[in-house]
Amino acid sequence: MEAEHIGLATMASLLRLVGLAASVAVSSALTIAEINGNKFLSPYSGQTVSNVTGVVTAKGPDGIWIRSTKPDRDARTSESIYVFGAKFASTNNLTVGDAISIGGKVSEYRSSKAYVYLTELASPTLEEKLSSGNTVKALVIGKDTSDPPTQQFSSLDGGFVFGVPNNVSLISVANPVLEPKEYGMDFWESLSGELVTVRKPTAVNKPNNYGDTWVIGDWKVTGRNGRDGLTQTEKDANPETIIIGSPLDGTSNPSTTKLGDDLEEITGIVTQAFGFYRILPTTAIKVKKSQKPALPSATKLKSDGKCNGITFGAYNVENLSPNSSHLGAIASHIVNYLKSPDLVFLQEVQDDNGPTNDAIVSANLTLSTLAAAIANSGGPQYAFTDVDPVDDQDGGAPGGNIRTAYFYKPSLIRLYKPNPGGSLDANEVLAGPTLKYNPGLIDPTNEAWTASRKPLVAQWEALGKKGKSEGKFFTVNVHFGSKGGSSSIQGDARPPVNGGVEDRQAQADLTANFVKSIFAKDKNARVITAGDFNEFISVAPLKSYVQTSGLNDLDAVANIKPVERYTYLFDMQAQQLDHMFISNSLKKHAQYEHIHINTWVDKAAQISDHDPSVAKLDVCS
Fold first, then answer.
1. For residue 233, what is the DSSP state?
2. Is the pLDDT of residue 21 over 60?
3. 25: pLDDT strictly greater than 80
4. pTM as predicted
5. Does pLDDT of 323 surpass 70?
6. pLDDT of residue 14
7. Cβ neighbours around 218 below 10 Å, total
8. Rounded distance between C-alpha atoms, residue 326 and residue 402, angstroms
9. Fold of the CATH domain 8-131
10. Keyword Cytoplasm, does the record have it (predicted)?
11. Rounded-to-integer distance, Cα 139 and Cα 80, Å
């Protein structure tokens, strides 16, 4: 692609911002833009350079940043660079606004081979202090630069950052020419080392444990949801975002920032560290205003108490054990926000002594404790069912033996011909159709489920007056393998490593084929699969799951706007890992809601890392 050029007016403006005195000498040595080059890696890496001139724009604990006194017209080549040397500034009494000429070694640094390199000048020597007191003004993103690209991260991603196969190339090997108007990583790389300002920033996630906070500015964005976060949608993973890292003045970013918070203007240095492009602000970010209402409304989907209006909840309760500090809050959520659904799909239910690593696998105490807490919170007296896993074989926290489970109202729903299977019993669809084990697991000894939860299948009947059966339906409660081992979305591997995607593909195939076997016995069977699929609807495992199973994505059936389909926050994304799929026979009058009780609050108030969802379906018409 042809080089993108900075206009003459912009170049003149940049020179004015630098404000160099006339005494600054013009050198025939390499410029900063030449050192950076128009790719990710410097063409001069490993070489010693001299007479590099620039103005100090910022100081950090381990070095300084300088901006070129000789900017070029190429938007691909950053005009700034990091000078690494903890005592370089203090030894030479350097401060912001000093124009200097230095020498040093061009280096490419990264703290992990999974990350993109940062070009820097190491082992610096001060050759001359040319002048002091020069004006330093930050470049305003979207005004003095182009807007960040809104869809693609890298030219090496093949058009889809979550494409399969992934990890087929490395930026450090391919070293593509930057295209900053097309690809998000290229845009931020073209500003590496630059002092920038983000106007009207908005937080699009909660801070991590270090206070790092993802934001957008007043530039064009895509995927904006009603809370002012950015939702990951089909082939759009929001590369226009940037993370705000540790402040250069030693202050700390707040830990209470929430999704959608309006922040004060941010000025800082663009760099690459810990797998992400980031801005190191000159001082801590400050929250101006938070979204209202602070909490979401409760679901509007309430049970009709009969088979043509049954409600279904789904909730990953995050390592719930009898002694979990959040158990009471989970109970309150189910009663007050989910309005006590008739049947609840639960994931991440631990055994009776939680993370204690012993031979206990039963979760009866965990489930009965939650059921009692729900009743004490004004909810119904739920019955429950699950199948114990083999000890330490289903992943999750060591000793926890997490599994999926069902809560249900026995006055309205009951298991049809109950016949529970065991940990190693493979369920089958029999004539009727009915299940060999009710409830039972899908092919639990298959290697696809190594260190992962096996789907819990059940067949139910809705009860009418005097306990008469008025409609049968099947459910499949899933918690597919985790994304552990994934690489940074802005890392070296392209497309990024989507950890466990091959396992989830195999798990999706097994589950989809089981559902398909139900339809082989009854094409009009009522089937609901729900839970934590640990995958996005646009990625291969779930695309093939829908195609093979014949089920329908309930978000689409219920016409939920794509930007409002989220149950989880990760990096710069509001994203959906939790899904519900239904058979054609359940589409009529189907309704669905995601209750953002965990994604909207700050980190301290978060009860689970997932939002729950509620559906209302007719299981008898």
1. B
2. no
3. no
4. 0.93
5. yes
6. 41
7. 16
8. 16
9. OB fold (Dihydrolipoamide Acetyltransferase, E2P) (2.40.50)
10. no
11. 11
